[in-house]
């Protein structure tokens, strides 16, 4: 007959690793986000996305139909970009897939995509994150000047007072090479802001208006 098992002593119990509890984290209620056209559905926990985005915080309110149905539509957002936003909501990580060693125009587009998504969803942390990457790219790398279409999109999809507009204007004044700059091809607001900031940088001194001959209709120089 087998000897009865001896219960473990107190010292034995203390030396053993405690058993891990297999419990699921409490993520709270989930919502469905329909992204793109045709729509791709995403399931995401409301508490996570609402903590990041004022847009989702408002949309998930029971005062709105979206909040009552727990479904939010974003038909103007790229599903692949939103998939990265889901990762951002959970892990605070939204790194660029391209680098300055890739095509620089592609890198700029990716960073602008991230900033505009933060603007679209009213996610200040994502806007600041994308701004930091753009600021580094423009200031600390030997990058080429952004494409005209990049600037046109920036002004088309942001509102007056945008801090990214301000960065682009300051960068243009500081880095734009001398030569032809066809202002008519750029957004009017961009041109106005360029002129305003450039004039503000001119030091105040005695006015140099040239000679009187430049303004007389009977001058030989006319």
Features:
single chain; 222 residues; mainly alpha; Potassium Channel Kv1.1, Chain A; three-stranded mixed beta sheet; 49% helix; elongated; disordered N terminus
Write the layout of secondary structure elements.
Layout: H1 10-15, E1 30-35, E2 40-45, H2 46-52, H3 54-59, H4 65-69, E3 71-74, H5 79-91, H6 104-120, H7 124-140, H8 148-157, H9 163-175, H10 188-201
Parallel strand pairs: 1-3
Antiparallel strand pairs: 1-2
Describe this structure in words.
The chain is built from 10 helices and 3 strands, in the order αββαααβαααααα. The chain starts with 9 loop residues before the first helix and ends in a 21-residue tail after the last helix. A hairpin with a 4-residue loop joins β1 and β2 (40-45). Mean pLDDT is 82; it is low at 1-26. With 222 residues, it is mostly helical. 18% of the residues are buried. α6 runs antiparallel to α7 and α9 packs across α10 (188-201). The protein is elongated, with a radius of gyration of 29 Å. It has a 3-stranded mixed β-sheet. The protein has helices at residues 10-15, 46-52, 54-59, 65-69, 79-91, 104-120, 124-140, 148-157, 163-175, 188-201, and strands at 30-35, 40-45, 71-74. It has a domain at 27-91: Potassium Channel Kv1.1, Chain A (2-Layer Sandwich), CATH 3.30.710. InterPro entries: BTB/POZ_dom, SKP1/BTB/POZ_sf. Residues 13-23 have a biased composition (Basic and acidic residues).
């Amino acid at each position: 007959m087998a000897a009865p098992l001896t219960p473990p002593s107190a010292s034995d119990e203390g030396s053993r690793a405690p058993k891990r509890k297999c419990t699921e984290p409490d993520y709270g209620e989930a919502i469905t986000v329909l992204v793109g056209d045709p729509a791709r559905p995403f399931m995401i926990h409301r508490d996570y996305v609402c903590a990041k985005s004022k847009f989702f915080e408002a949309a998930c309110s029971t005062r709105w139909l979206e909040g009552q149905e727990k479904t939010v539509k974003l038909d103007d957002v790229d599903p692949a970009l939103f998939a990265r936003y889901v990762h951002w909501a959970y892990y605070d990580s939204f790194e660029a897939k391209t680098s300055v060693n890739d095509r620089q125009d592609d890198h700029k587009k990716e960073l602008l995509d991230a900033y505009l998504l933060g603007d679209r969803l009213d996610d200040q942390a994502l806007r600041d994150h994308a701004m930091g990457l753009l600021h580094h790219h423009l200031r600390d790398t030997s990058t080429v000047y952004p494409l005209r279409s990049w600037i046109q999109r920036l002004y088309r999809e942001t509102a007056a007072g945008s801090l990214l507009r301000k960065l682009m204007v300051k960068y243009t004044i500081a880095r734009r090479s001398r030569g032809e700059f066809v202002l008519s091809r750029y957004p009017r607001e961009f041109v106005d802001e360029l002129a305003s900031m450039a004039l503000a940088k001119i030091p105040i001194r005695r006015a140099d208006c040239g000679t009187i001959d430049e303004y007389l209709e009977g001058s030989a120089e006319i």
